[in-house]
Amino acid sequence: MSIRVTHAHGDHIAVTAANGTEILRYVYRPDPAAFESRKPYAHPVRTLAGHTVTGYRPSDHRWHKGLQMTASHLSGQNFWGGNCYVHGQGYVALPERVGSMRHDGFPVLAVDDDRLTVAEELTWIENGGEEWAREMRGLIVHSVDEEAGAWALDWSIRLTNTREAPLRFGSPTTEGREMAGYTGLQWRGPRDFTGGTAFAPGSDADADKLMGSQGPWLAFTTEHDDVDGHSTLVFAHAPENLEALHESHWFVRAEPIPTVAFSWAFFEEFELPPGESFAYRYRVVFADGAWDRERVAAHLEGMPW
Predict the structure, then answer these.
(1) Origin, by domain of life (predicted)?
(2) In whole angstroms, what is the distance from residue 248 CA to residue 265 CA?
């Protein structure tokens, strides 16, 4: 199934499927609110049937914006947005700790009928203006399959420490809040995903029991409010993530908010020395219908890395 790509320079890149549905809008213009951590994000994201599967600035967390790369605790700074978790105090508004990610350019932006390939250069900047890290981000839209009712987005990151000191990555859990280890690539669902069903291979565990677990993929499905139908999102690790600088765990909630993150520092901090880099690759499948484990596994198997 072919796609059409439009680029509103300085603002966003949009991808539209052959059936006329805009399935992805990647926004890279700077956000107006510094407290929400200015950085690019993907929203709205839709299934091929046109169902919106990302939330944007929900009333409970204004800094949750679709699908975005984050770092909740990074050497005392917050590249997630909003309040900072401080042990013994809880969540505190510390605007002087909120950093940002600056879009520097697209060295690659290529369309080949049914595939979009994007490379984006970004700089991570702490609140005082010091440049801490250089990122090369990859976005690939592919496998747009009308028969399957699904399409896929591959999201990669290669982050290099440009400081003279190590970068220390953590999460609220490493700061003392149990089972709240969110950081890394994060998805926030819209309201109708609240109370949805999360599942993973080889397990009957629900979202609560999957929190902090590990595995090659995790899926989240819901029934929509405004239309008769379901949507399923599948979050998958690339094989080499198992050999990355630090092992990942799932951060997943269905209540009170719907969210999933590929957390690279759920239980333990790790350091990135000056001049060194780490890299991860992820895949998110956006599908119409209520998929089960067997269908998810078969679809992923038919989509090699």
Answers:
(1) Bacteria
(2) 7
Reported as type and span, the H/E element at residue 234 is strand 230-237
- Report CA dihedral (82, 85, 88, 93) to the nearest 10 degrees: -20
pTM, entire model: 0.97
DSSP secondary structure string for all residues of 146-208: TTTTEEEEEEEEEEEE-SSS-EEEE-TTTTT-TT----EEEEE--GGGTT-EEE-TT----HH
Task: Assign 232 to helix, strand or coil.
Answer: strand
Domain encompassing residue 207 = 3-302
Q: What is the pLDDT of residues 200-258, one digit of tens each?
A: 999 999 999 999 999 999 999 999 999 999 999 999 999 999 888 789 999 999 999 99
Whose tokens are 């839709």? That residue is: 46
Q: What CATH number should be reported for the domain holding residue 209?
A: 2.70.98
Q: Are 119 and 108 in contact (CB under 8 A)?
A: yes
Split into its structural domains, the chain has a count of 1
Q: Supply the DSSP string of 95-158, one letter for each residue.
A: GGGB-EEEEEEEEEEEE-SS-EEEEEEEEEE-TTS-EEEEEEEEEEEEEEETTTTEEEEEEEEE
